[in-house]
Design a protein that fits this description.
Elements (H helix, E strand, L loop, with lengths): L1 E6 L12 E2 L7 H12 L3 E6 L3 E2 L2 H11 L3 E5 L5 H14 L4 E5 L1 H5 L1 H7 L5 E3 L4 H13 L9 E5 L2 E4 L37 E4 L2 E2 L14 H4 L4 E2 L2 H15 L3 E4 L8 H13 L5 E5 L7 H9 L2 E9 L3 H6 L6 H14 L2 E8 L6 H13 L4 E6 L7 H7 L4 E3 L15 E3 L5 H16 L2 H9 L4 H19 L6
Parallel strand pairs: 1-3, 1-5, 5-6, 6-7, 10-13, 13-14, 14-15, 15-16, 16-17
Antiparallel strand pairs: 2-4, 7-8, 8-9, 11-12, 18-19
Helix pairs in contact: 1-6, 8-9, 9-10, 10-12, 13-15
């Protein structure tokens, strides 16, 4: 069968004009894996990633008509659910008999709501879709009944049918290496703070989180938490790195695991293998401060780690405790200091507008980011995603006002959906967010450090792009995204 995977863009479909090329994205690995599995089954597969190439409407229609897919699959996030619905309607208009399948975290957590809101969707894949997609395409091709395929939702005589929960695959080594042949890799350019050498590839070596308590995170929801923590073998990870280097000349890897440092023994062996095999690769990862230690960070740096993204969230201990983050200010200070001592940059992420926060507490968070001497910092707004504990807390009305009527497309880290009681209005919160970026980045000491760190023309180019991105999207923006 001819299959098309579509990744909806943030912000809507372009009605006219040129194709919009965007930075800050890397290939969607989950879709790459699904496409690889279907490709190996003999299906003809294409991927249209509109996050990096937002085609204007007419070009999109021309692309669809030219390819004539029999099945179109969408991965839906809360913020792209409205755009996905528009795309489904547009595709159905021009290819009426096409079969629409959707999946992704939002669709999986709210399957019935998604089907009710999008009556033209034929099938919804809930949970991890590798086996479900494979079996569904086999059944569609052979015109067989699908009621026995676990992990599906669909409509029958206006009734929504669930085929039951698909058990999670415990051994991730059973899945093939996700092929990148479905993407034009040169289209993917990370943000300047996210890499040192180009081209950059990305990988995911694990699924799940053993902590799963943070109130703002999807991992804390029962639906996601039940999956547990699973990981591919070190050898399998090395094979994928080698594939990216040999086939796509990748010079740096961004590991997208929710928590890369969770298993110290695995990370230690992984670093040893890179060192032993003399693999010339730089890499970055996400790391919780609880799992950082100086010996581990030094080993990571020796194997090529250049950057760690740490979710620090707040510079106030009471706020941290309320979010069940499980970390202290001193733990954060130690983790950042150890990383710098090992020669690794730190990107710190903070959330403004959390319950119990005041403008004064927000300022203390910015001051804490400066105290830590972070290499990069981001200040995002609290997004109480449905399905998380934070959503229920904000909805309760005990700690502020929450816009319950906002559409899912508003669920981004740049929209003030929740206003803590300590703030006068949304404008005050948005102003504090903008000032946080100014206060952190526009400092003589920070500028001097970046100038001293310049080692090549590529560094100059990266810093220029970063400064432009900062001005355009964080400092000069006048309102919510």
């Amino acid at each position: 069968m001819k299959v098309l995977f579509v990744v909806p863009p943030f912000g809507g479909i372009k009605k006219e004009g040129k194709t919009e090329q965007k930075q800050g994205f890397l290939p969607p690995i989950g879709i790459a894996l699904l496409a690889t599995i279907l490709d190996q089954d003999g299906h003809e597969v294409k991927v249209l990633d509109m996050q990096v190439q937002n085609l204007p409407e007419q070009k999109l229609i021309d692309f669809i008509k030219d390819y004539q897919p029999q099945v179109v699959c969408f991965s839906i996030l809360a913020a792209t659910s409205l755009v996905a619905a528009e795309l489904v309607a547009l595709i159905k208009q021009h290819i009426p008999h096409v079969i629409i399948v959707c999946g992704g975290l939002h669709a999986s957590m709210f399957p019935e709501e998604t089907l009710k809101a999008n009556p033209t969707i034929n099938y919804l894949v809930s949970g991890e879709g590798e086996y479900t997609f494979k079996e569904l395409l086999q059944a569609l091709e052979q015109k067989l009944d699908v009621s026995h395929i676990k992990g599906l939702y669909y409509k029958k005589d206006e009734e929504i049918i669930s085929t039951g929960i698909r058990p999670f695959e415990k051994d991730l080594n059973k899945f093939p290496i996700p092929s990148r042949k479905f993407f034009t890799m040169s289209h993917y350019v990370p943000l300047p703070s996210q890499y040192h050498r180009f081209p950059v590839g990305n990988m995911i070596t694990s699924r799940g989180c053993t902590y799963s308590l943070c109130t703002f995170c999807f991992e804390s929801s029962p639906f996601v938490r039940e999956k547990g923590f699973r990981r591919i073998s070190v050898q399998r990870a090395i094979e994928e790195i080698t594939y990216l280097i040999n086939d796509y000349h990748v010079k740096e890897i961004a590991f997208w695991d929710d928590e890369f440092l969770m298993d110290h023994e695995w990370v230690d062996v992984f670093c040893d293998e890179i060192i032993r095999q003399k693999i010339d690769i730089l890499w970055s990862c996400f790391g919780k401060v609880n799992f950082c230690s100086l010996p581990l960070l030094k080993k990571m740096a020796q194997s090529g780690c250049k950057n760690i993204f740490m979710g620090l969230e707040s510079g106030n201990q009471e706020i941290l405790n309320f979010t069940k983050k499980g970390q202290t200010l001193d733990m954060m200070r130690n983790a950042v200091r150890w990383a710098h001592e090992a020669g690794i940059e730190v990107r710190g992420s903070f959330i403004l507008g959390l319950p119990k926060e005041t403008p004064e507490i927000a300022q203390s968070t910015v001051d804490f980011a400066i105290e830590l001497d972070l290499d990069y910092a981001q200040f995002l707004l609290n997004t109480p995603f449905p399905g998380t504990e934070m959503h229920e807390v904000c909805k309760s009305g005990k700690y502020g006002t929450f816009d319950e009527n906002a559409g899912f497309e508003k669920y981004t880290e740049h929209t003030a959906l929740f206003l803590p009681s300590g703030y006068k209005n949304k404008e005050e919160l948005l102003s504090i967010q903008k000032e946080a970026y100014k206060h952190f980045y526009f400092r003589p000491k920070y500028f001097l450090r970046k100038v001293k760190n310049v080692r090549s023309k590529e560094d100059v180019f990266r810093y220029f792009r970063g400064f432009h991105f900062l001005l355009k999207t964080r400092v000069l923006k006048n309102s919510e995204f």
